[in-house]
Amino acid sequence: MTLDSRPEVLSLAAFTTAHSHAFQRAMRGKTQRPGPVPEDDFWTWREAMYAVVEGLTPERIEAVAREAFRELHDAGVRTVGEFHYVHHARGGVPYDDRNELAHRVIRAALDSGLRISLLRSVYERAGHGRSLVAGQDRFVDKSLDESLRAIDDLIGSYAGDDRVRIGIAPHSTRAVHPASWRELVSFARNRSLPFHVHVAEQPREIAECIEETGKRPLELLSDEGALSERFVVVHGTHLLPHEAVLLGEHRAFVCMCATTERDLGDGLPDLGALRSNGVRLCTGIDSHVVCDPFEDMRALETHERLRTRKRVAAARVGHPAKELWASASTEGAEACGFLGEGPMLSARTDHPFFAFVDHGDELDALVFSGTRALDGLFS
Q1: How far apart are CA 105 and CA 165, in angstroms?
Q2: Do the domain assignments include residue 377?
Q3: How many of the other CB atoms lie within 10 Å of CB of 126?
Q4: pLDDT for res 134
Q5: Which pLDDT score is estimated for 38?
Q6: Is residue 179, in this structure, part of any structural domain at all?
Q7: Would you give the DSSP letter of residue 375?
Q8: Which domain holds residue 47?
Q9: Is 352 exposed, middle or buried (0-12, 13-18, 19+ CB in 10 A)?
Q10: Is residue 375 part of a domain?
Q11: What is the pLDDT of residue 59?
Q12: Residues 6+ apart with CB under 8 A from 177
């Protein structure tokens, strides 16, 4: 099959990264050496992240976000779900406009050519019985009512802009009081908002939730009525089979952030259980340690191959590449609240990348062999 026999361009839905913490782009290169103690892990990484947070000004947050979003755009991403949880100045002092930092992040995304779902976080505490540490106070509002008013203000500010969606992102079961979930669920349902939560990323998070409530995080959220077609589990690394059933019954999403989960040593989720129960999958860059949507996409399959030690492990259909591209594009956009047809990419089929690739195999080649470094591939 020669290049002349194929169409000039391959039209594809543009990538979505459904989970991003843009400010963490400022951490690149800071956390890759062993820490002062041998137990270097997610929790020690988190301390380094708080140190970065302490040095953020509104101007620096916007500048870092602009660079993070420029990289995403250059890699073929056109929609980002920004899980936004730095709200206040140092010491937890609110800005005159309580949404100052959210506006700056949104502006950075739009100026970079991205649609953005600003997933405004609710963060109430350091954890059950834990005191806030330096940096965390910048995430915490004075009350739950204040958090919800800030979200309503954002909804009003961007109601006329088709490039912007607003969602709610209660950070996690460790950062939100158990008594708050019912009100958060009602608030999101009444406004039809995307509802994103970090769930079951770390075993300690699960153990602490069981100790406090007698339930695992997803069990608690299910009992509080959180699960729906707009509910997005972020990570879900340590979900159990019965929890995959719960998510599938509600056609909920799990957003896998493979490059970050790999960097943090989170573990390998049971993607087969999620797929077989009809859970919708999407992908996210998360900490911006690597900016390559191809890596995040194909890890939905290749990480499952490592876990199960077999090939074609996660896909449910006869064309795994098609399913994986949908997870990394349209499914992610829907998880962020963007419905219907979205931005498209045009891949030039005369690019050297496609040399010796038979017509009909182009998408498979892109999914399993593509990288963001393919200069001139997308027009």
Answers
A1: 13
A2: no
A3: 16
A4: 83
A5: 63
A6: yes
A7: T
A8: 3-369
A9: exposed
A10: no
A11: 98
A12: 124, 125
Q: Which of 51, 52, 82, 54 has the alpha carbon at shortest distance from 66?
A: 82
CATH number at residue 339: 3.20.20.140
Provide the residue type at 145 as one letter: D
Query: Dihedral angle at the C-alpha atoms of 69, 28, 175, 300, nearest 10 degrees?
Result: 70
Task: Give the Å distances, CA to CA, from 261 to 139, 154, 185, 227, 289.
Answer: 22, 30, 27, 23, 10
pLDDT of residue 5: 63
Residue 378 covered by a domain:
no
Phi, psi of 179 (to 5 degrees): -70, -10
More confident of the two residues 232 and 27? 232
Strand, coil or helix: 374:
coil
The three-state secondary structure class of 133 is coil
Taking residue 375's Cβ as centre, other Cβ atoms within 10 Å add up to 8
pLDDT of residue 102: 98
> Tokens for 49?
């992240």
Instruction: Point out the catalytic residue in the list 235, 238, 288, 303.
Output: 235
Catalytic residue among 87, 286, 288, 303: 286
Averaged pLDDT score across all residues of the chain: 93
Please say if 270 is a catalytic residue: no
Pick the more confident residue, 134 or 301. Answer: 301
Specify the amino acid at residue 174: R
Give the number of domains in the chain.
1
Identify whether 286 is a catalytic site residue.
Answer: yes
Summarised one tens digit per residue, pLDDT across range 36-86 is 666 677 777 778 888 889 999 999 999 999 999 999 999 999 999 999 999
Tokens of 283: 């992908």
Mean pLDDT of 299-320: 87
Whether the Cβ atoms of residue 234 and residue 197 lie closer than 8 Å to each other:
yes
- pTM of the prediction? 0.95
pLDDT for the residue numbered 6: 74
For residue 315, what pLDDT is reported? 65
Residue 7's pLDDT band, with cuts at 50, 70 and 90, is confident
